[in-house]
Design brief:
globular, 3 helices, 305 residues
Length: 305
């Protein structure tokens, strides 16, 4: 056999070996839970509306009752901040040079919670970043501190990169990373006040979500997605501290109970009220569009409720 024939046989054998390896390798984790249809049914134009591109943030304050150690407590007003930002896709942080062409548009959601428990308080904040091209969660960071110690958690879900990192003061959860066993279309429970604003508000409308349970805790449990169902109810007028609003109720059925939300009927569908299955309660106190990063002078405290 000549040299050309030997090369041909080698290539045929190599191709067969590769084919067998591909045939018998384990299947990759599915990026979509078959039951989840939230992103197929939601109004994804909500996140692309010019409302988010006016150079200001939507700042909402909520009268808050939180259950800590089994006791309902009057907390400081919870703050929800929503603002569009340009992010670097390589490190997933806001870009200094925002005119670069390769940047990714993100909608940042900051949730700030503070509650006194006897002699000491919990100070906690979560940031969730949604890709404005498809409304999906790209990143989450969470910090918690109280007199026992500090905790930090982060989640990445962006362009095939998935990870869940933690650093806490709890035995067995001191420092590490869990396998990122969640789908690309995951929805964070703590981000429902934003993502449910993307629903089609029509009585009887239902969606199913692949939901990552609440992360507002100094502990870092292994992330495990559960299925939840949200249903829109009939439009009604409700009263909250911020005033009277025409609103739609949304009930979210979870494995451990039911949450009830009320959303403003008209765009931008701000969350007006939230009663959780654990007994927490949030009601809108005040809402404004603000360039809050400029309001750092003495006297700017007047913007607080």
């Amino acid at each position: 056999m000549n040299k050309r024939g030997l090369v041909f046989l080698f290539l045929v054998a190599l191709g067969g070996t590769v084919g067998l390896l591909l045939l018998f390798q384990p299947k990759a984790h599915s990026a979509h839970y078959p039951e989840s249809n939230f992103f197929e049914k939601a109004d994804l134009n909500w996140i692309r509306n010019p409302y988010w591109f006016d150079g200001k943030a939507e700042v909402n304050f909520y009268q808050t009752t939180l259950v800590k150690y089994g006791i309902p407590r009057q907390a400081d007003p919870t703050v929800h901040i929503l603002v569009a930002e340009k992010h670097r896709p390589d490190v997933l942080v806001k870009a200094n040079e925002w005119r670069q062409h390769h940047l990714v548009d993100m909608l940042k959601f900051n949730q700030v919670v503070s509650v006194q428990t006897g002699i000491y308080a919990y100070r906690q904040m979560m940031s969730v970043f949604f890709q404005m091209v498809n409304s999906r969660t790209a990143k989450m960071t969470f910090t918690s501190h109280e007199w026992c110690g500090n905790a930090f958690k982060s989640l990445v879900n962006f362009r095939g990169r998935r990870k869940y990192y933690f650093d806490t003061y709890w035995d067995g959860q001191g420092h590490g990373e869990y396998p990122a066993d969640f789908p690309e279309d995951v929805v964070l429970y703590d981000a429902l006040p934003v993502q449910l604003r993307m629903l089609v508000f029509r009585p009887g409308e239902q969606v199913t979500l692949a939901l990552l349970p609440g992360q507002f805790s100094s502990k870092a449990s292994k992330p495990k997605v559960v299925m939840a169902q949200a249903e829109v109810g009939k439009r009604k007028t409700i009263q909250v501290p911020a005033g009277s609003f025409s609103a739609y109720p949304v009930r979210v059925a979870l494995p451990e109970g039911e949450d009830l939300f009320w959303f403003e009927a008209e765009f931008p569908h701000r969350m007006l009220e939230w009663k959780t299955h654990t007994g927490n309660h949030f009601q809108l106190l005040k809402s404004e569009k603000l360039a809050y990063w400029k309001l750092n002078k003495p006297g700017d405290e007047a913007y607080l409720p």
